[in-house]
Every structure is written in C-alpha cells, then in structure tokens.
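#struct-pred

JT: dropping the chains for the assembly here, can someone run the whole complex?
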Amino acid sequence: MDKSDGADLSRRVWRLLGAYMLRDKWLLFVALLSAIGLSGTGLLSAKIMSDLFDALKVGNAAKLNLYSLAIVGVYVVRWFFVYGEMVYFAEAGQRLGLRLRSAIYTHLQSLSLRFFNKQRTGALMSTINNDVPLLQSSIASLKDLAPAPFQVIGGIAICIWISPKLSLAAMIVIPLMAAIINWLTKQIKGITSRTQDKLSDVNTIMEETLSGIRVIQSFSAEQHEIARFDRENHNAKELFMQSVRRQANLKPSVDVIGAIGISFALWVGGNLVVGHQLSFAHLVYFIGLLNQVAVGLNGLGGAKVTWEQIRAASERILDNVLDVEPDIRSAPDAVSLPEIQGLIEFRNVDFAYVPGTPVLSNISFTMNPGEVVAVVGKTGSGKSTIADLIPRFYDPDAGSVTVDGHDLRAVTVQSLRKHIAIVPQETMLFGGTIRDNIAYGNPDATDEMVEQAARAANAHDFISNPNVLPDGYNTIVGERGKQLSGGQRQRVAIARALIKNPRILILDEATSALDNQSETLVQQALDELMQGRTTLVIAHRLSTVVNADRILVMQNGRIAESGTHAELLRIPDGIYAQLYETQFRWEVETPQVGAPL
Ligand SMILES: Nc1ncnc2c1ncn2[C@@H]1O[C@H](COP(=O)(O)OP(=O)(O)OP(=O)(O)O)[C@@H](O)[C@H]1O
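RK: done, full complex below.
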C-alpha cells in the first residue's frame, strides 16, 4: 500500500468512526475525562508518597497522619474514575458494535444478487462475527491509551522540575524504548489482518458444510471435510498465536527497558542523594513519576497496534459491505409503479454476468397481460437470467425491460417488486410458523386470508390434518422448512405467492420428481396461481408448454424460436421439435399430470 492509499484508508476509517462512534461525544468525553483523572491521581499519589517520606524524615506525626489519609482519599476518588473509564469506554464500544452490525445487516439487504454471487457468505459472516468485535475491543482498549499523553508529558515535566540532571540521565533510555516499540509494532502489522482472513476461511467452510450436509453425507465425505476444517482451524489458531506471541514480546520488552531506565535513574539519583544534591523524598517521587511515564509509553506503544487493528477491521467492514454501492437501486427521480395491467416487454436486451461473456443477446419479446409465456432451452441457455431481469435483480447491459410501458430503471424497485411473485424451483421457507411463512407475501394478511390462500394452493388439507401437523398453521417450520416434504413446501410457497396477489408471476418449475398425487396437487395449485396473471415460467413439464400462450426457445442466450406448441412443432428440424423428442415426448407416452423432466 503506498502512502496515498494509506492516507485514503485513514480517512475512510475516521469516516466510519465518525459515523458510528463519535455520535456519542458526551460518552467519550466522560470516558476520556475519567481516564485522564485516573492518570492524574496516579501522579498525585506519587507526590503524596514523596511528601510522606519527607514527613517521616523530619518526624512530623501530624503530616504523616494527613498524608496517610490523603492516599486513602485519592484511592476513593480513583474509584469514580475507574468506574467511569471502564463503563463508558465499554458502552461506547458496545454502541459502536450495535450500530455497525445493524448498518451491515441493513446494507446487505440493499445489495444486489450480483454482490451475493461474488461474495462468499463466510467472509460476510466473518465481518460481522470477527471484525466488528475486533473494532469494539480496540475502542475499549483506548482506555489505556487516552491517559498516556498526559502521563508521559506531565510526568516528564515534573521530573525535569525535580532534577534536570537526573531527568537527562533517565531520558537517555526513552529514544531506545521508542525505537524498540516501533520495531516490534512493525512486526505485528499485518498478522492481525491475516488472522482475520483465516477466521473467515474457517467460517466459509463451516457455512458450506452445514448447507451441503446432505451431499457430504451421501458421498461419505465427512472425514475429508473434517480434515479440511481442522487444517484451516489449526492455521487460524497458529496465526492468532503468532500475533499473540509478537504482542507478548512487545509488552515485556517495553517493561524491561523501563526497568533499565528506573535502575539507571536509581543509580544516578542515589549518587545525587549521597552528594546532597537531591532529597531522598524527591528521589522517591521521581521514581514514582518515571514509573508513570513508562506506563504511559507502554500505552502509546499499544496505540500503534490498536490503530493498526482498527484500520484493518474497518477496512474489511468497509470493503466487504458498507462501501459496496448497491448496483440495483431506485433512481433519484424514480416513480412509484401504479396499479398495473402486467404488460411486459423486453427490447433488444443484452446481458453478461462477466463483461465479455454474453449470456443474453438481443432478447426481444412481449408478454401481454394475463399471458403465460414458457421459456425452454438447454441448461445454461439463459432461462433463469431472463426471469431475473423482470424483478430487476439485474439490469440489462443494453436494451430495456418495461412493465406497462415503464422502463424498470425509472420506477422504484420496491413498487415494482410489489407486483411480482416468484415461486422458485427450490422452496425456501423461513424459521417461524407456517402461517408466518404464508403471510410473508403480505404482512397485513388476516388468518382468514392465510387459510384462503392455503386452500387455493392445496395446502390447507395437510396443514390442518392433525396427523400430519398437530400444530396446524402454528407449526414451527425448521430451518429452510426441512421437515416438510418437497411437494408440501412447494404448496406453501404457492400460497405465499397467492396471498401477495401479484399481477406478474415468475415460476421456475421444479425438476425433481414428486409422486403422482403430490404432483397433481402442486400442478392444480399452480394453475390456480397463474389464473389471470402475466406469467413467465421456466418450463420443465409438457403440460406447461402445451398450455402456454407462447413458448420461447432459448439457445446460447438468444431466442432461437418462438410460438405456440403446435406452431413450433411444425418447424422442420426445429430446436423445439428436437427438444420435444428428447425431453418432453416420454411424458406423452407415459401420461401423468405435469410430470417433470
Ligand atoms: N452468477 C453468475 N455469474 C456468472 N455466470 C453466471 C451466473 N449465473 C449464471 N451464469 C451463466 O449464465 C449462463 C446462463 O445461466 P442461466 O442460469 O440463465 O441458464 P438456465 O438456462 O436458466 O440454466 P438452467 O436450466 O441450468 O437453470 C450460464 O452459462 C451460466 O453459467
């Protein structure tokens, strides 16, 4: 990183701290004041000790009593400072963490699919689970740093006032200390960052393993995964310990240098006392001060490490999430999409996920309100990508997509998506009750509306059957709805779409086979759902394509053919005709309602 990058990073870090921490100015002010008060009382107690020795020397019992009491008094006052410092710094750190986690979560919701395709979930989790706490603890450690300048400057000033000669001798060691601190800090730099990266790898493996546990167990790959996890876990621990060892080296080295300074000062000071150039009490005071200076320098030494940690954690938080610009968002002058008919038009649309590798080329078609358009084609031909452009998960690179004549980029994203429901291939249900999952499509839905949607989606019977789900609509579905069968999950998802009552529907037919009865129920539910809505369906079933108003046949990102089933079959050597032969035909020979490919 060159200097300008470093300066830029520092600016970004300050911006982050300014936005999420410096809002609590009074809190930080009290915390800093407490920390400074704490170091002030440290300097004061050294002075009282020195006076106490003076009183001892001259045998002044009254002063002895007074100073003894004064020391107790100082420690009582310190109580408040210690409390203030501990609690308010911790509060500032916690508030920072709270706001950052919330901001990260909120920002993640605004980012587009393109971001989530690129970014590994583990790295994102690590940002929340590791970087935010690191930043928090770094802020809390400011409590050691805040009083350091006062300890060092105040201590040195009083030392010089007591004895310039002795100060000069003692201060010879200070540049040495500074040099060593500097060197050790440089060693630490970077290691913390690498440790965090490793932790993010561990998180990623954990994430992948948990979400892919079926595949892992079906391949009996548990041992392989355990070994992979252990390796990364071990590496993370090793790197962490490396960083701790370096830090552990820093602290005692500074202490040793401090001890050398104090012994040296004692030796020089002792000689001054013997030569009657300095009182014994002043020597005691001086040593006490020197100790404070060493503590302060130690704090300053840690400051660099702390700052590096703050910078590294902030950089990851900013780069991984907060500074990522959402590439899909409502334009400043976007209008709210009013009630719509559901007329969708693709005009000369080009799209690429990766620049230079076109996925859609010159796509143009129209879906009239209430029409069902089926998209078919080989895997990778671009079917899902077309579907993703309608709710504006991505923007076309060229051309336009319009709804009722409104370019999607000119309307607010929220108002557009309000009119669209998607039933994906793999149904995702959220933790919560079945009712919550159905009402997800319309938070204002009443129980009656939920039941009505479930009935229309052929889901009411199994939901209300006490032999299947004893808790009915209040059944808590597990993570991703795992305890429901595939067909049941699909019907809940259809109910979820129905309750939204959208004008536009996007269906990705499941390719996995359901048993005949389940298939019939799902198909009926889908037919009900499609009634009167403009529907784009990524079709895998013969019944869907036969009944569609139009079929788009995709090949290598282009619409190769389009028309009705009958029209397409008439094209000699047509792609659809071949597809029909290879993929759909067997359904005719073994007819069943909507059997999947
Ligand atoms: N997130 C992505 N990043 C990069 N390339 C992608 C991404 N998603 C899809 N692609 C590529 O875009 C092309 C079209 O993918 P798309 O998913 O639209 O095809 P599809 O016809 O729906 O395939 P399938 O029937 O297998 O679902 C493929 O070559 C695919 O590899």
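JT: nice. Confidence is low (pLDDT under 50) at residues 591-597. Residues 222-274 form the longest helix (53 residues).
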